[in-house]
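notes to self, project folder thing:

trying the whole complex as one job this time. last attempt i did each chain seperately and stitching them together was a nightmare. two parts in total, labels are on each line so i dont mix them up again. if this works i'll redo the older ones the same way
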Amino acid sequence: MKVGIPKALLYYYYGPFWEILFEELGMEVVVSDDTNKKLINEGIKASVPEICVPIKIFIGHSIDLAKKNVDYIFVPRMVSIYKGEVFCPKFMGLPDMIRHGVEGMEDKILTCHIKSKNDDISDYRNYIDVAEKLKISHDKLKKACEVASEKWYRFREYNKKGHHILEAIDMVNNDIKLESIKKYDNDVKLGVLGYVYNMYDGFVNMNVIDKLKDLNVDFVTFDMLDENELRKYIDDMDKVLFWTFSNKLLGAGYKFFRENEVDGVIHITAFGCGPDSFLGKLFEIESDDTKVPFMTIRVDEHTGENHLQTRIEAFVDMIRRKKAKAVMGG
Amino acid sequence: MVKAYIGIDVGSVSTNIIALDEDNEVLFKLYERTNGQPLETIKKGLKKLRDELGKNIIVSGVGTTGSGRQLAGVMIGADIIKNEITAHAVATVHYVPDVRTIFEIGGQDSKIILIKDQMVVDFAMNTVCAAGTGSFLDHQAERLGIPIEEFGKLALTSKNDVRIAGRCTVFAESDMIAKQQYGFSKADIIKGLCNALVRNYINNLGRGKKLEPPYVFQGGVAANIGIKAAFEREVGHEVIVPKYYNVMGAIGAALLAKEAVKEKGKTNFRGFDSLKTNFVPSSFICTGCSNMCEVIKVEMDGTPIAMWGDRCGMWTEKVKQAM
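result (full assembly):
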């Protein structure tokens, strides 16, 4: 039996868990291709026009998998991974949106409710619906979850030692041993804030990671921080946001701004993202208060690459020029 | 013989060339229409520079900026190839050190740059809509039968407020015709047009941004005193138009080139003779994957010397390695 996993949305956070889970359940796992123009165009065609581009991309990946003749496409219903907080409604309604909105998907969607107290979503009870559909015993499911969980924790450990998510996934998959915490030696270090699917999908953000590398810039992301650090600066707020990953970004952002450990902060956001309209404003206010430079990069299916290149270049340039001036005592 | 630093700004409408001396004084200034032929325009401009200054200067650094910066940079051996935001900001900060807001309106695009402590803190660019740019004004001046040079002066003579829809060139035009039929004078209509352009610019580019003085207005359109006055009305404050308002990008590129050469010790300038070399730009659609990138290739005497536009970097790398 072939189970397809779309390389989109939370694949960039839970992919290492889900891949092993289905392998351990005895499935042949098929991951969709990297996002590309053809795939994104098919996603756009099959989606309602006003939805955000990450969802359109997810739908494109699902279509890609359907073409690869998988028996099922895994589309979990992400409900909550933190007490009192939820996911964006589009995540909660994703299986329904695809089942009823995209042609030919009705019998292909394999789904389950994910509800958890924290980031660890390896509790087998989350996947009982999946096991039942695949006619797998609870014992086998439990074991598979344990094995997958072990790998996921390893991935997170690498990630938290300063390797970004794509590097960490690569390290786990190739069994590379981790020597030590990643060292930063460039003269400019940025905090880059964005949901994993905007940050690590090189197509939608036009290879922001490579562009930063070409400019010899180091960067830190929210996923490199431990949960305690992420909550440190938002715990004393009267009210946090409704959405867990937004709160993670907020906590990371506050840390970057206030602890003076980065030279600037870039927020990568998808056009039309509701939660990010709050986040963006909160970051703006924080930037004014702390005097740490801040820039928003808004991506959608029409983003021009020259424009993005110019913006990033200009941002990094000015940080470098300011630093050089400070050194010269100007 | 004096040291000279050349800055070249290759834009869609104009190509500007500047030469600065060691004290950043302008030795040479050229504002030339690109006419869709950046290579020819650069060659012609540099020839002019050589004819005027050639015997008295040693070219000690070259910088390029603008949308054609890559091509120009490869062609003449630039020491620095910089985006236009940085280039404009560097030049403005040089002339108005405490500037906070830069309004830049060129032929086909416009930008707003916010500066704090001489550092760009925010910016926006308009790339699709021409309603707030020079070509819109050109077109309207022509329609009203007024030379573009007179346009601004005439606006200042108006005593009435006429509101012209500025959202879109098409609506602005039909609105203007209607207002003409109501009997408003040309001066009134032009003033209304200036206000509409500025309103549109601020709404598009300045949305959600706090605009603080000192304000500097530059780019080709800054020649228009009617627009300058409209900006002053809109922000309620004096707006400075720097002396070299229409070549600020090129000046920034020259300043940056000087800096770059100081750091590395020598210039990469290929020399004026290199202009005789035959450069041929071309483009093709790469079919390596389903991204179908349009890859730009520049050949010098038949050998590819630069490629860009590929998302994966395959072609870019190939040329770099071969060089």
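what i see at first glance: Chain B has three domains: 2-88+249-276, 97-241, 279-322.
need to look closer tmrw
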